[in-house]
Amino acid sequence: MFTVDEISVRYDQKITLQNFSFSVEKGEILSIIGPNGSGKSTLLKAISGFTPYYEGVVQLEGINIKSMKSKQIAQKMCMLSQKNQAPPDMTVKDLVSYGRYPHKKWFERLDEEDMEIVEWAIRKTYLTAYQDRTVASLSGGESQRAWIAMALAQRPKILLLDEPTTYLDIAHQHEVLELVRELNQEMGMTVLMVLHDLNQASQYSDRIVVVQSGEKAMAGTPKEVMTQEMIRNVYRMDSEIQYRPTEIKPRIHLLKKVN
Ligand SMILES: Nc1ncnc2c1ncn2[C@@H]1O[C@H](COP(=O)(O)OP(=O)(O)O)[C@@H](O)[C@H]1O
Ligand SMILES: [Mg+2]
Known about the structure:
Elements: E1 2-11, E2 14-24, E3 29-33, H1 40-47, E4 55-60, E5 63-64, H2 70-76, E6 77-80, H3 92-98, H4 112-124, H5 140-153, E7 158-162, H6 170-187, E8 190-194, H7 198-204, E9 207-212, E10 215-220, H8 222-225, H9 228-235, E11 237-242, E12 251-257
The structure holds adenosine-5'-diphosphate and magnesium ion.
């Protein structure tokens, strides 16, 4: 459904992503992991058109993204970056309504069907009681849900999330990832997300791509990727990998830094 073929990104003169290739299958959850500064956010930004790449091709359903208008892309793909900021007086409902605009002509107002979709997105993210509050007044978890609701109102086929759990406590991290899984399973939404917690990546992903210094270090199922060797090479940590009897996804215990 989505292929990234040999893309390279340079900031100033520094090569930040080099000949990076992978593909995302329809209906899967694919996570990108890797150390800080390895190029994960750059990868997501390049894919979604925020950062130019000087080499390579990104295709969405067989069409080169560079030949698509930004509105066409927004009808199919939505990206939430690490830090999303709404204007101070914007309410949850306003924010979620924005998700509908890629589907409208510039002079067109939202109609009844749009408002039904907006209400559905608010319900789906358990924000009905908060819809008239300003986004700025919400807690971290509520605010993250409001942005996901905006993305949902856009009805994208593919959702790109850059560290959707980073500023949340563990209960809210769980809540957001369960929501992502629900959207994937119930609506068949394809998800590409950057996670930094190895166990979350293992538990919630069908496949994982590992980024190291701007290159793809590894890709595969959680079982294939989460090995002591990968964690030692990429994160310089010793670890133990555990399989519970009824689970196919590995659990990772980080032990200590490799000297
Ligand atoms: N706008 C930018 N201008 C210059 N360098 C940047 C810019 N954005 C990111 N970088 C650099 O590119 C590298 C990769 O960054 P990033 O993709 O944000 O990594 P990650 O998300 O994996 O932590 C880092 O060295 C970072 O400093
Ligand atoms: Mg990042």
